[in-house]
Design a protein that fits this description.
Layout lengths: L2 H34 L11 H21 L6 H31 L9 H24 L3 E9 L10 E5 L10 H12 L5 E4 L15 H5 L7 E3 L3 H5 L6 H6 L3 E2 L3 E6 L2 E6 L2 H6 L6 H6 L6 E6 L5 H6 L4 E4 L10 H5 L8 E5 L2 E5 L17 E9 L2
Parallel strand pairs: 1-12, 2-3, 3-4, 4-5, 7-8, 8-9, 9-11
Antiparallel strand pairs: 2-12, 6-7, 10-11
Amino acid sequence: MPAAQRRAARAEEFHVFMAMLLAAATLVEAYVLWRVARARILGRRIPTGRLLVGAGALWVVLLLGMFVARGGAGPFAAALELIGMDLFATLFLLAVCLLAVDAATGFGWFARRRVPALRGWGVLAGLALAAVAVVQGVRPPVVVPYEVRLAGLPAEDDGTVVVAVSDTHLGTLIGPRWLDARVAQVEALHPDMIVLLGDITEGHGAAAGSFLPGLRRLSAPLGVWAVTGNHESFRRPGGGSDVLAAAGFEVLHDRWAEVRPGLVVAGVDDLTSRRRAGLGGDPVAKALAGRPPGATILLSHTPWQADEAARLGLGLMLAGHTHAGQVWPFDLMEKWLYPLMAGRYDVAGMTAIVCRGTGTWGPRMRLWRPSEILRITLRSAP
């Protein structure tokens, strides 16, 4: 399939996904409305008529924020998208709290006199969780340190510092000023090498070129290396991996490169996009084929095929994509699809580290774990 057709198919798939997300948001809102209608909040019930009017207005905001604003640019479109996406996450948290009340009371069959008050407390709990998630979502990412011993790493490379950034989603909601602050944060870590693990650009909104000045400030003695994520696949021509290349980064499309003798970095294009496009083959084996001896680091946006990487003798695999669920309890639902969700794992002797994202996707909210930047110190094996 030609590249233009693949981009069109992925864009259509993304629109289908957003339509499904709107349908889910509609069902969630309907459930919340159903339960709030009989909840006592601060000692009184909200009249049904007002609830229906409010619910209609909220649904319109959801529709505009998820679809109309995502195709636009400027502060108004950004504000509308932010409100719509944060509203969806807030409704989800309200539904979780109200569902917990329903589960505890048998959907109102037990403790009937207390159910309205309990539902009121469920609404307040959901709003409180949403407030915490907003604060957590906009705070700067934390730096998480790791030490990894790599077989084959030359002794003179012991102590090499690799800084990993993932899922910044630069676009409408995360702009150049945020990027400048993250570049300064990375520079303060004094990296020997910087790796970008995909979804650096969002795929809509602000022109990707507006981020080039900030991205070009990222530099390290051993280079800046990148792989593409699923959102780079959605971008129109002139974005995505083109932006990464224009910033001066080495983009690894199913290939390896020798950073210096004894240290190799390899990367694969996003495995999620590859699966959705129905592409076969073995990208991990292709990316590692013919590499020289020494220590190898594999970069993969999606944390899949770790077993394959370990079988091929890798010492370290770095990935992102999952956002660690971003807003609890999405992480509980994601784990069946991404067994390597976030943090450090041992896979048949290989170390795999999954970044929970440096930015956010959709709502600018996180519950419970904050965004992160990884600082990995490489150690020679004894």
